[in-house]
Amino acid sequence: GSHRGQLILVEGLDRCGKTTQTTRLVEKLASQGHKVELVKFPDRSTPIGKLINTYLCDKAFQLSDEAAHLLFSANRWELAATITETLNQGTFVVLDRYVYSGIAYSAAKGLDFDWCASPDKGLPQPDLVIFLTMSTEKLNQRSGFGGERYEISEFQGLVKEKFDKFAAMESMRSIWNVVNVEGKSIEQVGNDVWGLVEGLLQGTSQPIHKFLA
Ligand code: TMP
Fold it and tell me: Ligand 1, atom 16: nearest CA belongs to which residue?
């Protein structure tokens, strides 16, 4: 019939295995005969994405926190129509980061949470969010953070607090799922992720919801 694809988002702190898991998920969906596309945010290939890449990699590049926030949101709006079209053609879209990263990282810098959420209002709302996380204790023990702007343990703890706010929000209750990756192999986390996605494989005839609208 007129079934659309489902919008599946994998969110998480830096270095939680998010990109590994989204890649595996896309491969598994494809291997089962589903049409599927992967969209990663920030998409650093667009005009706005190129600015974001410079901002993330070059600490001398000056941008106010507000301006940076709006660029990340604009980067999502650049791709919103394409994502909607893809879903409506019956293709699954797997997102690697999205609005929740946008809000959590900026709010962790001290920007107002609701202000941070407002430019994303109306974007396609994921049908399923899988949040990959670990305890703050474990987070603090991790080494090997790279040189990008936000890869500092302390800051990651603040980001985690902001992400955890979504888990408590009434409007997120039906879509927000937490997967603790602590002490788990890639395969084990992959099984947890698949367990959440398995129920959605038939697609849906429901219209695409809009984020916070
Ligand atoms: P990445 O490592 O997944 O490419 O993301 C780059 C960094 O950008 C990461 O530290 C998270 C951060 N980020 C934001 O601050 N706001 C956003 O809206 C997104 C999508 C990512």
Answer: 102
